[in-house]
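Holo model, flavin-adenine dinucleotide. Inputs:
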Amino acid sequence: MDFQLTSEQRMIQDSVRRMVDRDIRPILNAHDSETPLPKAAMRQIMELCANQGLLSARVPESAGGAGLPTLVYGLMMEQLPPVVTLAVLGQEVTVTRIHFESTDEQRERLLPDLMSGSKITCTGTTEPDVGSDPRSVKTRAETDGDDWVINGRKMWITNASICDVINVTTSVGKDDEGLSRMMRVVVDREVSPFEAREIPTLGLRQGHLGEVVFENCRVPKANQLGQVGDAARILTLTWLANRPILGLCAVHMAQAALDVALKYAGDRVQFGRPIGSTQLVQEMLADIATAVTTSRLLCYYALSCIDRGDRGNQVSAMAKRYAIATCQRAVSLAMEVHGAMGISRELGLEQHYRDVRMLPIPDGTNQILTLIEGRELTGLKAYRS
Ligand SMILES: Cc1cc2nc3c(=O)[nH]c(=O)nc-3n(C[C@H](O)[C@H](O)[C@H](O)COP(=O)(O)OP(=O)(O)OC[C@H]3O[C@@H](n4cnc5c(N)ncnc54)[C@H](O)[C@@H]3O)c2cc1C
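Output:
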């Protein structure tokens, strides 16, 4: 067992960090931190990330992707600003889902623009009445000649308001148990127009989280992916790596919080001595550092289990739930180390505090992840699927 990154892994991380400092931060800084980026700016960021293989990480090289081990993908994603992590993950996971069990014709037609970032994409599963239980999706796909006709609404979809292409989880009816028979359809906005709008939220405000409305949206049947009934399996397979990567996004914020808290604790003097020399401030710093290290290691471990081919359900759920909860507390503690300065907009910790609060929700809430762990431990299901 070796807990050190290889020199190659460190070089890859450095390369992403350099790209962030040189190319991505200037784009983010040129725009209001509280407003979704213009589409052109997000596309520019996507294209930069594509150059590093981040938009096609899970697509094999033989199919034109980067074919990265998921651990390496996670190491790279950890270096990105959180708002970029969410946008890139939404894009890359959609690329992966389209790649899975599609035809050669579909891959050749759909994937190059998405893997290069020249088109923006997303996956729409969640609906106003359907969240943790995707087998209840109501967005209907009905057959009509050579088209599917789609009606329904999707909500809380990353990248939705600026997307060119959306991978939609639809229902084509119910099975014997009354659950949706789910089908995946790719909707190209130019060919099959639909409405999308941004939903204002607490954090990650330069990103895009939106609602999509399909009203008699005609989609060529050539855009149906895989088989009716495979949607839940494909979603689950891709959530496995997404979860620790979202955990690493929280680690990124907790590490940034630790760095500023350590400096402040050394500089700030009260009662005639640096606050960092007091035992209670040291306790806060020790708790933050422990959160960063344990969360990071657990997320790396979960990703390496997936790379080894283990069934990663339990550890992937554990990594996301633990890392995000622990790093949320760490960011809050770092604010406490700063006293009033901690809540100032000038310092930036309040933005991490809002951003990290967004992360427990996508790809499995804390409660759903707990139930996945429980099911894996006991072999007994506390919820349906
Ligand atoms: C930043 C962000 C990005 C997102 N990106 C996407 C995206 O790209 N595509 C997409 O389709 N969706 C996306 N979502 C939506 C996300 O997947 C859903 O919000 C999530 O699945 C939870 O659904 P819900 O909000 O409807 O909550 P609900 O499912 O209604 O849950 C409400 C509460 O009840 C709890 N609960 C539900 N069922 C149980 C149970 N059986 N036992 C115990 N507790 C339970 C939940 O844990 C939660 O606390 C995103 C959300 C966020 C915040």
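The chain has three domains: 7-116, 121-227, 232-378. Residues 86, 90, 122-126, 131-132, 156-158, 209, 358, 361-362, 365, 367-368, 371, 383 surround flavin-adenine dinucleotide (CB under 6 Å).
Archived with the compound record.
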